[in-house]
Design brief:
Structural class: alpha/beta
Order of helices and strands: EEEHEHEHEHHHHHHEHEHH
Strand order of the largest sheet: 1-2-4-3-5-6-7-8
Largest sheet: 8 strands, mixed
Radius of gyration: 17 Å
Number of strands: 8
Shape: globular
Number of helices: 12
Protein backbone atom coordinates (compact mmCIF):
# COMPACT_ATOMS: atom_id res chain seq x y z
CA UNK A 1 0.00 0.00 0.00
CA UNK A 2 1.62 3.26 -1.13
CA UNK A 3 1.10 6.63 0.54
CA UNK A 4 -1.47 7.59 -2.09
CA UNK A 5 -3.28 4.26 -1.62
CA UNK A 6 -3.44 4.50 2.18
CA UNK A 7 -7.04 3.51 2.87
CA UNK A 8 -8.79 2.06 5.88
CA UNK A 9 -10.98 -0.56 4.25
CA UNK A 10 -12.84 -1.96 7.25
CA UNK A 11 -15.54 -0.59 9.52
CA UNK A 12 -16.47 -1.08 13.15
CA UNK A 13 -19.57 0.48 14.68
CA UNK A 14 -18.54 1.49 18.19
CA UNK A 15 -19.99 3.38 21.11
CA UNK A 16 -18.78 6.72 19.69
CA UNK A 17 -19.66 6.11 16.06
CA UNK A 18 -18.28 4.40 12.99
CA UNK A 19 -14.55 3.62 13.11
CA UNK A 20 -12.47 2.94 10.04
CA UNK A 21 -9.55 0.53 10.38
CA UNK A 22 -7.20 -1.73 8.45
CA UNK A 23 -4.71 -4.53 9.08
CA UNK A 24 -1.35 -5.13 7.39
CA UNK A 25 0.93 -8.16 7.47
CA UNK A 26 0.37 -11.88 7.88
CA UNK A 27 -2.71 -12.85 9.93
CA UNK A 28 -0.71 -15.26 12.09
CA UNK A 29 2.11 -12.80 12.88
CA UNK A 30 2.44 -11.22 16.35
CA UNK A 31 -0.11 -8.38 16.64
CA UNK A 32 0.80 -4.71 16.97
CA UNK A 33 -1.73 -1.87 17.28
CA UNK A 34 -0.82 1.71 16.33
CA UNK A 35 -2.63 4.69 17.89
CA UNK A 36 -2.46 8.18 16.41
CA UNK A 37 -2.84 11.51 18.21
CA UNK A 38 -4.44 14.87 17.59
CA UNK A 39 -5.04 16.46 15.16
CA UNK A 40 -3.74 13.57 13.08
CA UNK A 41 -4.93 10.19 11.81
CA UNK A 42 -3.53 6.73 11.09
CA UNK A 43 -1.98 8.24 7.94
CA UNK A 44 1.01 9.41 10.01
CA UNK A 45 1.81 5.75 10.75
CA UNK A 46 1.83 4.59 7.10
CA UNK A 47 5.62 4.21 6.70
CA UNK A 48 6.21 2.68 10.12
CA UNK A 49 3.18 0.40 9.69
CA UNK A 50 4.52 -0.99 6.42
CA UNK A 51 7.95 -1.57 7.98
CA UNK A 52 6.53 -3.36 11.03
CA UNK A 53 4.21 -5.44 8.84
CA UNK A 54 7.24 -7.39 7.60
CA UNK A 55 7.21 -9.26 10.92
CA UNK A 56 3.91 -8.34 12.58
CA UNK A 57 0.16 -8.16 12.04
CA UNK A 58 -0.31 -4.39 12.26
CA UNK A 59 -3.68 -2.84 13.12
CA UNK A 60 -4.30 0.84 12.35
CA UNK A 61 -7.43 2.89 12.97
CA UNK A 62 -8.78 6.40 12.87
CA UNK A 63 -10.33 7.33 16.20
CA UNK A 64 -13.98 8.50 16.23
CA UNK A 65 -14.07 12.10 15.02
CA UNK A 66 -10.71 11.80 13.22
CA UNK A 67 -9.49 10.99 9.71
CA UNK A 68 -11.86 8.75 7.80
CA UNK A 69 -13.97 7.82 10.82
CA UNK A 70 -17.38 9.28 11.61
CA UNK A 71 -17.72 12.93 12.57
CA UNK A 72 -21.04 14.21 13.86
CA UNK A 73 -22.60 16.84 16.07
CA UNK A 74 -22.76 15.93 19.80
CA UNK A 75 -20.26 13.09 19.27
CA UNK A 76 -18.24 12.07 22.31
CA UNK A 77 -14.62 12.18 21.15
CA UNK A 78 -13.08 12.76 24.59
CA UNK A 79 -10.04 10.84 25.75
CA UNK A 80 -12.33 8.81 27.99
CA UNK A 81 -14.48 7.81 25.01
CA UNK A 82 -11.43 6.93 22.90
CA UNK A 83 -10.14 4.67 25.66
CA UNK A 84 -13.46 2.82 25.74
CA UNK A 85 -13.54 2.46 21.95
CA UNK A 86 -9.99 1.13 21.93
CA UNK A 87 -11.04 -1.58 24.37
CA UNK A 88 -13.98 -2.42 22.11
CA UNK A 89 -11.67 -2.75 19.11
CA UNK A 90 -9.31 -5.06 20.95
CA UNK A 91 -12.33 -7.31 21.56
CA UNK A 92 -13.38 -6.99 17.91
CA UNK A 93 -9.91 -7.96 16.73
CA UNK A 94 -9.62 -10.92 19.11
CA UNK A 95 -6.70 -9.40 21.00
CA UNK A 96 -7.93 -9.80 24.58
CA UNK A 97 -7.48 -13.45 25.49
CA UNK A 98 -4.50 -14.99 27.25
CA UNK A 99 -1.64 -15.19 24.78
CA UNK A 100 -3.40 -12.90 22.29
CA UNK A 101 -2.32 -9.60 23.82
CA UNK A 102 -0.90 -7.16 21.28
CA UNK A 103 2.04 -4.85 21.46
CA UNK A 104 0.80 -1.25 21.41
CA UNK A 105 2.51 1.79 19.90
CA UNK A 106 0.92 5.15 20.67
CA UNK A 107 1.64 8.74 19.64
CA UNK A 108 0.56 12.05 21.20
CA UNK A 109 -2.84 11.71 22.93
CA UNK A 110 -2.95 8.11 21.70
CA UNK A 111 -0.60 7.53 24.62
CA UNK A 112 -3.24 8.72 27.07
CA UNK A 113 -5.81 6.52 25.30
CA UNK A 114 -3.60 3.44 25.59
CA UNK A 115 -2.67 4.19 29.20
CA UNK A 116 -6.30 4.76 30.22
CA UNK A 117 -7.42 1.54 28.55
CA UNK A 118 -4.69 -0.36 30.40
CA UNK A 119 -4.94 1.25 33.83
CA UNK A 120 -8.69 1.92 34.03
CA UNK A 121 -10.27 -0.70 31.78
CA UNK A 122 -7.94 -3.68 32.19
CA UNK A 123 -6.67 -3.84 28.61
CA UNK A 124 -3.63 -6.13 28.50
CA UNK A 125 -0.61 -5.51 26.27
CA UNK A 126 2.49 -7.53 25.53
CA UNK A 127 4.61 -4.39 25.21
CA UNK A 128 3.94 -0.65 25.09
CA UNK A 129 5.82 2.02 23.12
CA UNK A 130 4.96 5.66 23.83
CA UNK A 131 6.03 8.21 21.21
CA UNK A 132 5.92 11.92 22.17
CA UNK A 133 2.79 11.25 24.19
CA UNK A 134 0.30 13.32 26.14
CA UNK A 135 0.63 11.81 29.61
CA UNK A 136 1.85 14.39 32.12
CA UNK A 137 0.25 17.68 33.18
CA UNK A 138 0.30 20.44 32.21
CA UNK A 139 -0.32 19.99 28.51
CA UNK A 140 -1.90 22.03 25.73
CA UNK A 141 -0.30 25.16 24.28
CA UNK A 142 -1.87 28.62 24.77
CA UNK A 143 -3.15 28.44 21.19
CA UNK A 144 -4.65 25.01 21.84
CA UNK A 145 -6.47 26.26 24.93
CA UNK A 146 -7.69 29.34 23.05
CA UNK A 147 -9.20 27.21 20.28
CA UNK A 148 -10.87 24.86 22.74
CA UNK A 149 -12.20 27.62 24.96
CA UNK A 150 -13.83 29.47 22.06
CA UNK A 151 -14.66 26.61 19.72
CA UNK A 152 -18.13 27.98 18.90
CA UNK A 153 -16.51 31.12 17.48
CA UNK A 154 -13.81 29.34 15.46
CA UNK A 155 -16.34 26.91 14.01
CA UNK A 156 -17.84 29.88 12.16
CA UNK A 157 -14.61 30.97 10.46
CA UNK A 158 -14.77 31.18 6.65
CA UNK A 159 -13.53 27.91 5.16
CA UNK A 160 -10.38 29.42 3.69
CA UNK A 161 -9.28 30.98 6.96
CA UNK A 162 -10.01 27.77 8.82
CA UNK A 163 -7.93 25.72 6.37
CA UNK A 164 -5.02 28.16 6.70
CA UNK A 165 -5.22 27.93 10.50
CA UNK A 166 -5.21 24.12 10.47
CA UNK A 167 -2.35 23.98 7.95
CA UNK A 168 -0.22 26.23 10.16
CA UNK A 169 -1.10 24.27 13.28
CA UNK A 170 -0.44 20.82 11.82
CA UNK A 171 2.72 21.97 10.08
CA UNK A 172 4.20 23.20 13.35
CA UNK A 173 4.35 19.59 14.61
CA UNK A 174 7.24 18.87 12.23
CA UNK A 175 10.77 20.10 12.87
CA UNK A 176 11.85 19.73 9.23
CA UNK A 177 8.64 20.68 7.42
CA UNK A 178 5.93 18.55 5.85
CA UNK A 179 5.63 17.93 2.11
CA UNK A 180 2.58 19.65 0.61
CA UNK A 181 0.90 16.34 -0.20
CA UNK A 182 1.35 15.02 3.33
CA UNK A 183 0.14 18.28 4.86
CA UNK A 184 -2.97 18.28 2.68
CA UNK A 185 -3.71 14.66 3.58
CA UNK A 186 -3.61 15.55 7.28
CA UNK A 187 -5.55 18.81 6.92
CA UNK A 188 -8.26 17.57 4.53
CA UNK A 189 -10.39 15.62 7.04
CA UNK A 190 -10.71 18.79 9.15
CA UNK A 191 -12.23 20.88 6.37
CA UNK A 192 -15.72 21.08 4.96
CA UNK A 193 -19.15 20.92 6.55
CA UNK A 194 -18.36 17.98 8.86
CA UNK A 195 -14.63 18.44 9.28
CA UNK A 196 -14.45 22.05 10.44
CA UNK A 197 -16.68 21.72 13.51
CA UNK A 198 -15.09 18.34 14.26
CA UNK A 199 -11.67 19.99 14.50
CA UNK A 200 -12.75 22.36 17.26
CA UNK A 201 -15.00 19.75 18.91
CA UNK A 202 -12.10 17.42 19.63
CA UNK A 203 -10.00 20.24 21.07
CA UNK A 204 -12.85 21.40 23.30
CA UNK A 205 -13.29 17.88 24.70
CA UNK A 206 -9.61 17.12 25.34
CA UNK A 207 -9.52 18.04 29.00
CA UNK A 208 -6.44 17.60 31.18
CA UNK A 209 -8.51 15.77 33.78
CA UNK A 210 -8.26 12.65 31.62
CA UNK A 211 -4.53 12.44 32.27
CA UNK A 212 -4.90 13.64 35.87
CA UNK A 213 -7.01 10.53 36.53
CA UNK A 214 -4.14 8.17 35.69
CA UNK A 215 -0.93 10.13 36.21
CA UNK A 216 -0.36 8.82 39.73
CA UNK A 217 -0.72 5.21 38.56
CA UNK A 218 2.15 4.97 36.07
CA UNK A 219 4.20 3.21 38.74
CA UNK A 220 1.71 0.31 38.55
CA UNK A 221 2.64 -0.57 34.96
CA UNK A 222 4.27 -4.00 34.83
CA UNK A 223 5.21 -4.62 31.22
CA UNK A 224 8.11 -3.65 28.94
CA UNK A 225 7.80 0.04 27.99
CA UNK A 226 9.78 2.13 25.52
CA UNK A 227 9.45 5.92 25.52
CA UNK A 228 10.59 7.54 22.25
CA UNK A 229 10.86 11.30 21.82
CA UNK A 230 11.76 13.68 19.03
CA UNK A 231 14.75 15.73 20.15
CA UNK A 232 13.26 18.86 18.58
CA UNK A 233 9.65 18.43 19.74
CA UNK A 234 8.27 21.96 20.16
CA UNK A 235 4.84 20.71 21.31
CA UNK A 236 5.87 18.57 24.27
CA UNK A 237 9.40 19.12 25.67
CA UNK A 238 11.86 16.24 25.77
CA UNK A 239 12.03 16.62 29.55
CA UNK A 240 8.46 15.33 29.76
CA UNK A 241 9.51 12.17 27.97
CA UNK A 242 12.40 11.59 30.34
CA UNK A 243 10.13 12.19 33.33
CA UNK A 244 7.52 9.78 31.99
CA UNK A 245 10.12 7.05 31.49
CA UNK A 246 11.37 7.61 35.04
CA UNK A 247 7.85 7.13 36.44
CA UNK A 248 7.31 3.75 34.73
CA UNK A 249 9.26 0.86 36.31
CA UNK A 250 11.94 -0.43 33.94
CA UNK A 251 10.97 1.86 31.05
CA UNK A 252 13.63 2.68 28.47
CA UNK A 253 14.03 6.13 26.92
CA UNK A 254 15.06 6.65 23.29
CA UNK A 255 15.80 10.09 21.80
CA UNK A 256 15.25 10.51 18.05
CA UNK A 257 17.59 13.20 16.76
CA UNK A 258 16.42 15.67 14.13
CA UNK A 259 12.73 14.98 14.76
CA UNK A 260 9.93 17.16 16.08
CA UNK A 261 6.61 16.08 17.53
CA UNK A 262 5.68 14.20 14.35
CA UNK A 263 8.54 11.75 14.61
CA UNK A 264 6.79 9.47 12.10
CA UNK A 265 7.18 12.14 9.41
CA UNK A 266 10.53 13.63 10.44
CA UNK A 267 12.47 10.42 11.08
CA UNK A 268 10.39 7.40 10.00
CA UNK A 269 13.34 5.07 9.40
CA UNK A 270 14.93 5.80 12.77
CA UNK A 271 11.62 5.34 14.56
CA UNK A 272 10.87 2.11 12.70
CA UNK A 273 14.28 0.70 13.69
CA UNK A 274 13.75 1.65 17.34
CA UNK A 275 10.28 0.11 17.41
CA UNK A 276 11.33 -3.04 15.54
CA UNK A 277 14.10 -3.72 18.01
CA UNK A 278 11.79 -3.19 20.97
CA UNK A 279 8.90 -5.24 19.60
CA UNK A 280 11.00 -8.26 18.63
Amino acid sequence: MTDAEWTLDRTYRGSSGEVRWAALGAPDAPPVVLLHGTPFSSYVWRGVARALAERHRVFVWDMPGYGASEKRTDQDVSLAAQGRVFGELLEEWGLTGAGAEPAVVAHDFGGCVALRAHLLHGARYRRLALVDVVALAPWGSPAYRLLGGHHEVFERLPGGLHRALVREYVGSASAVGLADGVLERLVGPWCGEAGQPAFYRQIAQNDQRFTDEIEDRYGEIRLPVLVCWGADDSWIPVERGRELAARIPGARFRLIEGAGHLVQEDAPAELAVALSGFLT
